[in-house]
Amino acid sequence: MMKMKAPRKAGRTWPALILATAVACPGVAGAAATGFNDVAVSPDGEMIAITTHDAALGYRAPTTVSLRPTHGGAAVTVTLPCQGQDGCRARSLTWSPDGRTLVFTITHPHSMSASLYATDRTGAKPTVILDFPGLLAEPRFAPDGQLAVLATAAPHKLGGATEASAVQTGEVGTVIDEQRIALVDHGALHFVSPADLFVYEYDWRPDGHGFVATAANGDGDANWWIAKLHVIGSDGHDRIIYTPPGNRQIADPHVTPDGHSVAFIQGLMSDFGSTGGDAYSLPLDQPGSPRNLTPGMHASVSALMTHCGTGLTGLVLQDDHDALVSLDRPSATPPTLWRSPGGADAASVGVLSCSGNRIALSTSGFTGAARLTTAQLDHGHPGPFSTVIESEPGPQIPLHVRSLHWHSGPYTVQGWLLEPQGGKLGARPLIVSVHGGPSAANEPHPADIGLTHQMLAAGYDIFLPNPRGSFGQGEAFAAAVQGDLARGPMRDILAGLDTAAHAADPAHPVDETKMALVGYSYGGYMAMWAPTQTSRFRATISGGGISDWLSLEGENGIPNASRAVFGSYLLDDPKPYLDQSPILHMKSVRTPVFAFVGERDDECPMQQSQEYAHAMHVIGVPVEFVVYPGQGHGLSHADTEDSNRRSMAWLARWFDHPYVPAR
């Protein structure tokens, strides 16, 4: 299950209480053709390196690398050796300590090999530092100029559980991919971290004599959920300094500049890269007992930085906005250094980099332009931001954005309502879009591309709830989903649905006979679960969903993920797994479902959607089932476009001609 930074449903209950003012924002959905992949500020704060892509082509699109002075001046495009070719994606921009050299990786997906390149501040033609018969990621310089990188020799697949799984033939599981820390030395690699230890993230110790890393033994895709915090010496000596509770994950380790402590994020997380929780600090000479820096905070820390001023800085999602906060001492309300707009004008932070006295970050909202901006830092506080890049306008749809709040049981829940403006007066269909995860969030994202744009263009309202389990309201709220992946979140969504209907523009009220629920990954699971619990939805759309938690344990490549969200192994306590499997509650289903999935999805395998489609055929309810050849948990641009086309046709079909079960 994953968070994707693009996307992330008959009776009736009236009305859920709106707790915060739902201000309508007359904006324009558009201007987001540029997607920002990475940004790196040079150590002197004078240059910004940026990788971008054509957002309309999806996150796998080829990238462009450019260098831009922070105080104005012409941008320079770095000519990549594979410029414009399919799969040409520069990643992991990293400046040398003296700021003279910019390093990045390029993976050659068809040959399963990678190269490490370097250019200078002028953007000169990149030179090869290393060609490697395997995968490379996250190059990092030590203060003395040593260069390390994560390297996987002779991999069987691209890195990460969301990539397409290797073909399972012959004796399975005898050889696993190992991602290890290695030093780059005169065009060769010297492996440092032990074999059979898969390293996920790491940071240099300031003295250059080793690393702090999150790592786990065995299969890297399967075991991120049980990773521990390690100290690895430059001689390869490895010791574990912290083992998190079995139902929590750790991410984003950063050694403090004095070398005495490591800061990291701990929380209930659904997938590597979908980061949220509380911030912790652990003295390196006192292993085992970290200190919570954000106890009881009603927000989720998503990233940590040790170079934004003099102390530790956190990027947090707090309700409907992002913020930078100071984490120098434990507090439930850490001092705010900067915050993005919230409410109707909300914009979320995409990529971010700090170096000394300079910060650069990208923001995008449902309306307006996506931007990369920069500001001078004064004791960690950003001054006025100036725009470095503003995206080109995309298709324009006048749009109202409303940030909604409502009560559901003991919780206050937040979500978004998007309403296209204009058109004929009268009621409109409403689409509920459930995010992946469950540990993730529906945040502001460009509404001028993809399925969001197509639904708005068709005149549909879109409701984006953040039910329990989501980031943004604190760790207790995010962890409330543990053991209750289905019923509690569905109650939150249905209560929010009533709030959205109550808040909609009176000139365009919600047509409660034309509502649908769509989602991918965890959202796809909820699109399978919803028809077993309610008849409020005319149709649902499930991408990469889960129908049977029991069979999933024997099919997917990430069994430890289930333990994290259920709190126990299936063999120890099967009841919650069975109780929350849609396949065991199908007798009452009367809602047509479109299900699609990648053939080699290792997280939510194809067989899960196949089981559900088969059950739909057995009970005689309309279903469409599509499998995309060779794809993993993330689809290619062409397959995404096809699934979007099919989704729009599915919605139009059942909105125009409701399904009536045979008597």
UniProtKB/TrEMBL annotation:
InterPro entries assigned: 6-blade_b-propeller_TolB-like, AB_hydrolase_fold, Peptidase_S9_cat, WD40
Cleaved signal peptide residues: 1-31
GO biological process terms held by the UniProt record: proteolysis
Superkingdom of the organism of origin: Bacteria
Keywords: Hydrolase, Protease, Serine protease, Signal
Ranges of residues in domain Peptidase S9 prolyl oligopeptidase catalytic: 454-656
Gene Ontology molecular function: serine-type endopeptidase activity
Name by which UniProt lists this protein: Peptidase S9, prolyl oligopeptidase
Protein's organism: Tanticharoenia sakaeratensis NBRC 103193
